[in-house]
Amino acid sequence: MGLLRSAFAVAACLLLSSSTLFAGKTASCTFQTFSAPSGYTLSTVQGIGDDGTVVGQLLDNKTQMFVGFLRSPGGAVTPYAAPKSSTTWMYGQNSTGSSTGSYLDNGNTPHVHGFFLAGNNFTQVDYPKATSTWLFDVNQLGAAVGSYSKNSSVNGFLLVNNKYTTIAYPNYQVTYPMAVNDNNAVVGSYANGFVNNGFLWQNGKFTTINHPNAKYGTILTGINDAGLIVGNRLSADNEFGFIYQNGAFKNIVYSGAKLTIAGGINNNGVISGQIYLTGTNTIGYTATCK
Hints:
CATH superfamily: TolB, C-terminal domain
Number of helices: 1
CATH class: Mainly Beta
Strand order of the largest sheet: 1-22-21-20-19
Number of domains: 1
Structural class: mainly beta
Helix content: under 10%
CATH topology: Neuraminidase
Number of strands: 25
CATH architecture: 6 Propeller
Distance between the termini: 27 Å
Shape: globular
Largest sheet: 5 strands, mixed
Radius of gyration: 17 Å
Strand content: over 45%
């Protein structure tokens, strides 16, 4: 299911946010679905720009290598492999045409690097003196969020005008900021061992947001300027998408599917994500939900 989803798949969530009010409602959604292009298998569907451009990851069926992709508003899917990479992930997209992602280099001792991609303009991002760097999302103003590894911990960051601000939940080993809106409100997940929790971070303050029915954890993956949040609750080995706003949760459900996973949300309220019709039969989607 991709780098972050694999890392979180065994996470267990024990904390519940006191602000949560409703957990069992199902959102009313209108879905538009899409499939991987010929020769590829859909791996993950992540963020969505305001123009409807969707990004994520594909498996090249011939080479068995993972590459990123951009899907245009018209439906054209373009695979993308970062220079000198063995694996490429794409996570975020803003309205100015800038994408964010990460790649594993093909060196003798591989490391993960973040990157911005705007057209053919590729810019590598490496947190100073970090072992590896992930870049997850960028807002319309160019502020980006990601994570970096040093020693045995993984902390997050907000990157604005080449200046890093650390985002690290106190006394926790891992913090992954996954999305940022134009107000620099950040959502993501933090973990200590097998304990995983969703969070909202703004102006240096954390608020924990956990789905009450998330037995094994909560991951927040997207936030728009209206404060509408999407994410996933975890079972032992699966994820189930939801929408969160004003203390209320609504589940995202595609009729007849085994799983419906949320990847991101844009400022028009359009959600991107992935549908598992069976264990291996997967398609992407964009959806508007009420």
